[in-house]
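Task card 7
Instruction: Convert sequence to structure tokens.
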Amino acid sequence: MSRTKFLLSEDQLPTTWYNVVADLPKPLEPMLHPGTRQPLTPDDLAPLFPAELIAQEFSTERETDIPGAVLDVYRQWRPSPLVRARRLERALDTPARIYFKNEGVSPAGSHKPNTAVPQAYYNKQAGVTVLEEFRMAKLVVSVDEDVDPESDADLWWAMATRLQADQDLTVLTDREGFPLDPTQSTAYSPALSADGRTAKAHFDCTVPYTHRTRFHRPRFTQPSRASGG
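Output:
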């Protein structure tokens, strides 16, 4: 019987992403800023994406290492099956061999988690990076696009409905802090190695991609007041 499906084992899962730009005969035309119509720069994307994703967007390197934490998630459904489309070959009456990857085996039933998982990973790492680089920052809250980060009510809502502390809370212990903060002392916390050190926290209040269909934020409108007669 002719073989139709080709399966790899988990230990054959690729550990790098391939960038086709490195093998193009000539560079692609630059991406344009939608407002200025000028070539897009990394600084233009800084308000939207973490630094690592921006670096990959502009990279010309052939391969990028896949983080171990991302690989651990990928192993839930990858490597996905490679399928030979034999019936399509017969229907087209072609001598060519036609193959496709069956991405329907992912939790979302499509290819989308292949990029959604690393995006979530790098955004979470970016929150930790902020805590590491800015010593006066003691906590960072990551939220989805439907949450207004400048609204205290929105932030509290996100923490109440989208935070599961056993997996969404990252604590960084004994980090450089700000000496004028009275809690950042060994007298207050014996776990600190010296005064001016502190513990920091990252609250990941974003919805995991595979659960997004279960999270729909209701929109409420203020009731109108009936005019008195």
